[in-house]
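Narrative of activities, Objective 1.

The group set out to show that a structural description can be obtained from nothing but a protein's sequence at a throughput compatible with the screening campaign. Below is one input-output pair from the validation batch, recorded exactly as produced.
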Amino acid sequence: MPAKPAYPPHSAPRLYVDTELSEGAEIRLDGNHAHYLLKVMRIQQGQPVKFFDNRTGEYLAHVTMLGKRDLILLIDGKTRERDIAPDLWLIAAPIKKDRYNWIAEKATELGIAKMIPVQTERTQNVQIKPDKLRAHMIEAAEQCERTALPMLDRLIRLDALLQNWPADRHLFFADERIHESGEGSFRKALVANGGPAAILIGPEGGFSDAENAAIRALPQSVPISLGPRILRAETAAIAAISLWMAGRGDWG
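Output recorded for this entry:
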């Protein structure tokens, strides 16, 4: 018989695995996952671990075998169904690597459904490494107890994005140029524009005049202001997501 957990399941380590889980299944872990549990968490026989698979939900398991570099766990049962994420996309121009990774982490924590890197005229860093960016999103989901991972699209040019924009999705466009005119209240825009949405954040140098005009020409575009201060790109992204989640998302 496995030993009883030494601590409550709610404090168990939590990991994402890219395989469909089910009650009674065995999981063998090696590599980074095994190192984390064996060397960092000092996991012991019988202790609990939580898993989520981004397909069916979250499960509680316990350790049945410990090796030097691997371990085997048995799935005891499902603890939660897969989350239904609010239908919000973040479209953000790449900025410096560490700051862009930070955007991906925090956007995941806040609950977005998809992230789309977009290349603009003033985008300076287009060396997106999807695997590393995805790893940051997975780590954030593990820590904030999400059971659904945001989708991550490939880098796309702004003109191609606008050309193929879905007819049923609003595009909230963070435009620092409109604050002085008194237009673009995000609060009012959220009331008037419900349903599927996306937030578009430009690069560190902002959008060019031609890009600004092209975005505004899109029928689904909703120009918004994020207040009287000019925000850095990463701050603007997180501020806009937070405002949308408070107004139309699942914050309640």
